Amino acid sequence: MSNIYEFYKESNKDHLNDFILNFNNKEFTHKDLIKMADECAKSLIAMGVKENDPVAIWLVNTPELVALFLAVSKIGAVAEFIDPRVTPEQIKAEFKVTNPKLFIPTTIYQFDRFVNDIVNDSSVDKVISVSPAESFGVIGKFLVSVVDKVKSAQEKNHFAKELAEIEINSLKKTWERKILSFFKRVLEKKETITYINWNKFLSLGKNVIIDKSSKSGGGILIKTSGTSKGMKAGYGKLIKLTQENAIALARQHQIKQKELNISRGDTVMSFAPFSLAYGCLDATIMPLSMGVKLILMPDFDPNKMAEYVLKYKPNHLLTCPAYIEIMKKSPLITKDTDLSFIKTIVAGGEKYDLSKIKDTNKFLHEHNVPTNVEVTVGYGKNEISSACTYTFKSPETIGEKYTELGGNYIGEPLPGNIIKIVDDNFNELPEKTVGKIIVAGPTVMEGYYKNDELNKESFYVKDGILYHDTEDLGYYIAGIGFWCKGRESRQMYDQTGKKIDYEAIENLISNMEEIDNCMVVQNKDTGDLILYVSLKPEYFYLKDMLQEKIKNLIFDKFNSEPSLLPKYISVLEKFPITENAKKCWVELEKLKINSEDRCEYLTYSKQIKKTKNAY
User: Fold this and answer.
1) pLDDT band for position 174 (50/70/90)?
2) pTM for the full model?
């Protein structure tokens, strides 16, 4: 198939009248989406977008975003997805590398405050403002009517100053004045830039004819969260995925459709932005190609997950461990809440502790989810188009049976993927031996965008096959699958150079009833281990007592291995997380140590026998 657009269209040619999008309870059929994508494609061409040109898109999840993605694919351009939660400084830094000419931001939330600052210091010469109101309800209709009144009056599409001033003076309500003041601020932007709204954009392509879709070129630009080695949090590596990567991922899921319990007509909900491969591919192109209706969530607030799940009742939830844990604690879900509509719940993006997997399975089954449905764990990275493995076997059963080497059971490769465990010289290792995880297959990225140095470090040719070094450590057991033991760059060493099994500490403490989260980091200057924990809210008042209990547990378990005794144990109210809801160990390393959290094992160890059962 030549591109994502054609692949999606061909996959649903016999189901054009089926509903495929739900946004704020407004539904769109395949036919509606294809029509919108065709209009966008023609308008992009009218604006001068050519094959392989980057189109920078800074939107929340709306039907317009999905249509733009398909349209950019159709004409062979590059969809540069920007996380709605990033700062203008991060976008400006990215634009210095990608040099887009066209920028498509969301209005109201960001446009009036940030866009002027971004585009005045960039290569951008055209801006299309897209309001979430385009597909919203009553308030949306008001916003669109205002936009229509304040259209451009000149060749360069500048908004009419006089009309904006008349509207501002005539409106009394504060929120209406704020909305319209946005149009006034647009007048202050530099003269060389063309600004238009969504309706004007769609009108530009009316006379454009596209004979055929692009057969090559184009792709997707996304960015890592910045937690791998050498990166600053929030300033990650730019990744170029191809259209072939996206199609291959969807086809892999089609082959495994039965094992994943997915059927045409099902519904899927994801809280992932398109700036992640998980969001634009796993949660969009994959379900679109299988006729699974997308429930689009423009709000990425994990605290609203339970509310939306109960409102829309999705069959499939694609999310991450942190979001699942927040949903489980929601007061909206009582003991009588029925969740029987859930067919799969996939947790990806970071390690999901076995104790929490067991607790989530129990939670699901207590709320009427069939007992054959368990949490599915996926493993992947943006660099390999998101998921490359799934736990088709029960991660709870397998995880409990094979505990010898630790780690997180991540399952088996999707069709076409090759995963190997190798040493530092890329020699393949036998089963049950920890080493680097390297991956080959049709979903491996084209490369880090305009970064030859990183690409040389990331790729390795073995037996004529190109592999990507995931920077993760793991092992495999024949016939069962793979385990991941965490980032290679997170590995810790004592003063003799011996590797510290920090995961053993995390596994011990995470199994405590009172613990919400935990993570070990190492002071780069002293080599001291620091254990950070957060407590479940109902136990926070026992903070001091629980710090002692944690000390006792660690000393009792690891007193013969001094390297596993943290020098500090610090209780946090909450963990720093990345935009992608991962625990951010990079930020934990920056926290100032509180001297009161220092553990004096030699002082209190004599009292261990007296106190270890006191709690």
Assistant:
1) very low
2) 0.80
